[in-house]
Backbone:
């Protein structure tokens, strides 16, 4: 199948010529800084740092940084990055994540860990898109990245059809710490990286696993978040 964007040298969104995969005017238009809940990354009214849901029931991670809405044109770029083997798109996408992390301005973690893929999924795809983001982000920020610390040993059923409670039940126990290195997380500040945050159940369950291993502080970093209905 022909990719939907034009050859290199042109912006993947508007087709204009430039150095980058997405040109500066498109970034300004489609990636404006917006107010988000500091615990779950959903959009909030300007000046509001915590949404009602997180006020009532905070997630198991301490903060959440979201770079983009999972919407045009990022949904198409991320789908190509993830499902069509366009792993080189990690370079332009991670810059959005880095910008959001730097804008957030909180202390940086010691460890940057990707949300792991089940082995079968990893074998099919050939790479873990979250790791491609995590390792680039860690290198740019001077943190340590590790793909084999948090593991997902079992294949999970597809999550898309399930509601929130079913998703959580489905993922319970899905992640575990590598027994050889689990002690290295004790008392540590960890960032957990995922490409797309939908309901947040994946990051919640992965963060709960890190918490049980003694991680002192956990930040969730998502490249994109599905906007709440009506946003
Ligand atoms: Zn453009
Ligand atoms: Zn929230």
Residues:
């Amino acid at each position: 199948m022909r990719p939907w964007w034009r050859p290199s040298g042109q912006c993947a969104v508007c087709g204009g010529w430039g150095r980058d995969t997405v040109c500066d005017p498109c970034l300004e238009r489609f990636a404006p800084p917006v107010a988000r809940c500091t615990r779950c990354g959903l959009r909030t009214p300007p000046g509001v740092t915590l949404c009602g849901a997180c006020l009532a029931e905070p997630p198991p991670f301490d903060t959440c940084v979201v770079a983009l809405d999972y919407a045009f044109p990022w949904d198409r770029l991320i789908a190509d990055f993830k499902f069509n083997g366009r792993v080189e798109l990690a370079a332009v996408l991670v810059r959005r994540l880095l910008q959001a992390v730097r804008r957030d301005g909180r202390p940086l973690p010691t460890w940057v860990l990707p949300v792991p893929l089940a082995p079968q999924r990893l074998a099919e795809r050939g790479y873990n898109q979250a790791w491609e983001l995590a390792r680039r982000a860690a290198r740019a920020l001077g943190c340590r990245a590790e793909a084999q610390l948090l593991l997902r040993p079992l294949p999970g059923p597809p999550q898309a059809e399930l509601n929130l409670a079913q998703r959580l039940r489905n993922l319970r126990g899905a992640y575990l710490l590598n027994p050889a290195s689990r002690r290295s997380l004790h008392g540590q500040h960890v960032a957990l990286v995922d490409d797309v945050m939908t309901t947040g159940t994946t990051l919640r369950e992965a963060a709960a696993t890190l918490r049980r291993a003694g991680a002192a502080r956990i930040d969730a970093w998502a490249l994109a978040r599905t906007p709440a209905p009506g946003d």
